[in-house]
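Page 42, continued from yesterday. The earlier attempt failed because a stray header line got pasted into the input along with the sequence. Redoing it now with the clean sequence only.
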Amino acid sequence: MIFVDVLKNDRENQPLVNSTLVHVHEIAAYDSLIETASHLFSRQGFYQTSVEQISEISGISISCLYSYFNNKKDLAIQVLRAINQNCQDYLIQSIQEGTQLSPKKRCMAFLSAIREFFIYQEEYCSPLFFIVQLRGSSVEFDLSVHRFFNLWIDVAHQILHPAFSYQEARKEAKKLIASLQGALLMQHLYPAENYFEQFYGERLAYYQALFSKNVRDSRKKKK
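This time it went through. Structure tokens are written below.
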């Protein structure tokens, strides 16, 4: 739509057109750097990835890179924020789509959404690899890490609350996210072992049994 509007502008609006195009190119360059850095940090690690490598693969010059980010650590912080936002958008959508489901089906849908997210959005698959390396390196990075994990815990808590008390649901949510991140890290280190599918199958069976038990217990109380 932007480029259609640009084509409609006459010469009197040419400065505005140039400004719009520059802005579009800046966004594209920024997004390319974030995507490339996310891919490399997640697979190689932060310290094993150079600024030169990010520049070469993204096709964005090093000088342009430094116009967006103060240094490589600043880039890593922005990568984590982008991952966090991407996860948030996806999880909120999955929750909204499941509001009419029963607690059990909603939990199953949440697990399926997690599986689909990490299968089909591979570039966001293994942030743990560079999170572990940079943990404690700066207050800003640590805050981004906390936001990343708290988002997942909050969503899992909301999904699991019908099966547990408030405090128990919080503990169970932390266990779920810890298991998820552990499975993702092991999957990254040993891809042939298929740890993520093992995690998915085990959690699915566990919560199916748990919700079924809660239904049975509820029926007994009514009798």
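Notes: Residues 14-44 form the longest helix (31 residues).
Reminder to self: strip header lines before submitting.
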